[in-house]
C-alpha cells in the first residue's frame, strides 16, 4: 500500500538509493506477512521521511540487533541468508546523509529513513 505525498523530490545518488530499496523489498519478500506499506512524507520543513512497514509472523524482541552484520531472527535462514540487508541499508543511508531507525511493536516492523531535503 503506497502512501506518497505529492510534489516531493529527493535529490540523491540513484544507484545507492536503488540498493537501499532492493534490500528493503528483499526483506519484505522474506519476512513480511499479509501486509506491507510504504509512505513518503515531509517530516518537517527540511526533512523527508520514507517508512516501510510490514506485519510479521512473530514479535521481534530486539529490532536494533537487525542492523548487526550477519544477524538474522530466522534460524532456518542462517545457512541461506547472511543477514546483511539492514546493515547495508543503514550504511548506504548514512553515506547518503540520512538516518535509519527501526521499530518493532507486537507483530509489526517498520524501517524509517529520514533525509534532509536539499531542495528547500
Write structural notes for this entry.
This protein has two helices and five strands, in the order βαββαββ. With 120 residues, it is of the alpha+beta class. It has one domain: 2-Layer Sandwich (Heat Shock Protein 90). It has a five-stranded mixed sheet with strand order 1-2-3-5-4. α1 (14-31) runs antiparallel to α2.
How is the biggest beta sheet arranged?
Answer: 5 strands, mixed
User: What is the helix fraction of residues, given as a range?
Assistant: 10-25%
- CATH level 1 class label: Alpha Beta
Tally of individual domains: 1
Q: How many E-type strands?
A: 5
From the spread of the alpha carbons, the general shape counts as: globular
Tell me the number of helical segments per DSSP (H or I, 4 or more residues long): 2
Provide the CATH topology: Heat Shock Protein 90
List the defining traits of the structure above.
120 residues, alpha+beta, Heat Shock Protein 90, 5-stranded mixed β-sheet, 24% helix, 31% strand
Question: What's the structural blueprint in terms of helices and strands?
Answer:
Layout: E1 2-4, H1 14-31, E2 36-44, E3 47-55, H2 85-95, E4 99-105, E5 108-116
Parallel strand pairs: 1-2
Antiparallel strand pairs: 2-3, 3-5, 4-5
Helix pairs in contact: 1-2
Provide a concise account of the structure shown.
With 120 residues, this protein is α+β, with helices and mostly antiparallel strands. 24% of the residues lie in helices and 31% in strands.
Amino acid at each position: 500500500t503506497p502512501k506518497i505525498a505529492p510534489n516531493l523530490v529527493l535529490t540523491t545518488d540513484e544507484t545507492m538509493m536503488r540498493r537501499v530499496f532492493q534490500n528493503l523489498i528483499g526483506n519484505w519478500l522474506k519476512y513480511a506477512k499479509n501486509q506491507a506499506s510504504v509512505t513518503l512524507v515531509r517530516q518537517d520543513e527540511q526533512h523527508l521521511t520514507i517508512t516501510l512497514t510490514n506485519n510479521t509472523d512473530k514479535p521481534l524482541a530486539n529490532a536494533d540487533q537487525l542492523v548487526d552484520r550477519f544477524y538474522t531472527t530466522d534460524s532456518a535462514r542462517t545457512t541461506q541468508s547472511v543477514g546483511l540487508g539492514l546493515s547495508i541499508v543503514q550504511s548506504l543511508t548514512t553515506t547518503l546523509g540520512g538516518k535509519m531507525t527501526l521499530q518493532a511493536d507486537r507483530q509489526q516492523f517498520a524501517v524509517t529513513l529520514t533525509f534532509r531535503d536539499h531542495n528547500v
